[in-house]
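Hey, sorry to bother you again with one of my protein questions. A protein chain has come my way and I'm curious about its shape. It would help a lot if you went through both lines with me. I owe you a coffee for this, so here goes:
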Amino acid sequence: MKDPVEMRADGDEDLYDITTWEPRTALDRLAIKTHRGAVRAGRRFIVALGALILIVILALSGAGGLIIEDPFILGLAAFSVVPAGLLALYIYRADITTKEPPSLLVVTFVLSVLFAGFAAIINTAFGFLQLFPLIGLILFFYLVVGPVEESVKLLAVWLYPYRDRRFDSVVDGAVYGAVAGLGFAAIENVIYITQNLQTPASVLIDAGVGVLDGFGDTVEAGGQITAVRGLAGPGHVVYSAFAGYYLGLAKFNPENAGPIVAKGLLIAAFIHATYNTLVGLVPGLVSLLVPDVPILVLFLGFVVVYQGFFFYILYRKLKRYETAYKRAHEGPETASEFESAMTEFDPKTR
C-alpha cells in the first residue's frame, strides 16, 4: 500500500521523509538504535517482572520452603512432567526440518516457567467468577483461564525464539510451543503438588510420627496428585503446540500475521477451556452410570481420551507438513497417505 503522492510521483523524485523513509542521517541511525534499545529493555523488563512475580508466588504459597524442607516433593514434581516431556520430545523429533538448538529450547522452557506468574495473577483477579454456579465457572474457563494461559505460553515463544533466525520453518512454532507448554506444566505441577501435600514427611516426623510412616504418607498422598498432574500436563503441550504452529505460520505470512496468530490462540484456548469445563463434569456423570468404578479411574480415562483425541489431530497436522516438505524436496513420490487429509479447523477447499 502506497501514499497517493508516492503512487503518482515520478520514479526519479526523491520522497525521503515525505512519503518514504530509510536511514540516511545521524538522527535516523540514532532513532534506529533508540528503537532497538527500547525493545530490548522492554523484553528484559518483562522477563524480570515474570521472575519477580514467580518468586513472590512461590514464597506466598509456601512451595519454595516446602521443597527445601522435603526435596522428595521436587522429585514428585519432576516425575509428574515425564508424560508431558515425552510428548514434547515426540513433537521435537517430528520436526522434519533442521533440529532446533538446545539453547533456544531451554530459553523457551525457562521463559514459560517465569511467565506462568502472569497467568496466576490474572486468573486470581477474575477468580470471583467461580462464585457463580456453573455459568460463572464456564465463563471463567473460556474468557480467562484458556485465553490467558495460552497467551503467556505463546509470549515465551514470541519474545525470544520467534525472533531468532534459526526459527526457520512453520513447524518450528509447534516445537517451541510444545516446550513452552512443558515449562508451564512443570511449574504448575510444582505448585499443585506442594499445595496438595498437606503434611509432608518432615512435618510428620517432627510431630512424632515414625520415619517410615511419615515417608509412607507422603508417598501415598504424593503418588495420587502426581498421577493426576502427570496426565493433565500433556494437555499444556498439545494446546500450546497448536498455538505455536500458527505463530510459525504467521512468521512466514506477515501480511496476515495478526489473524493467523489469533486463530492459533482461539484454537488453543478453546481446547484448553473445554477440557477444564468437562473434566469436572464428565467423570461425575459417568460415575452415575457405573458406580462401581472409582472416580479417579473415570477421571484418568477422560483425560486420556480427551487429550489423545486432540493429540491425534495435532499429529495429522504435523504429518501434513512432513508430506508437503518431502514433496517439495524429494518429489511427489514421497507423499504419504496424509497428503489429502484435511486439517481439523480448515475449511474444505475441494
About this structure: The mean pLDDT is 85.
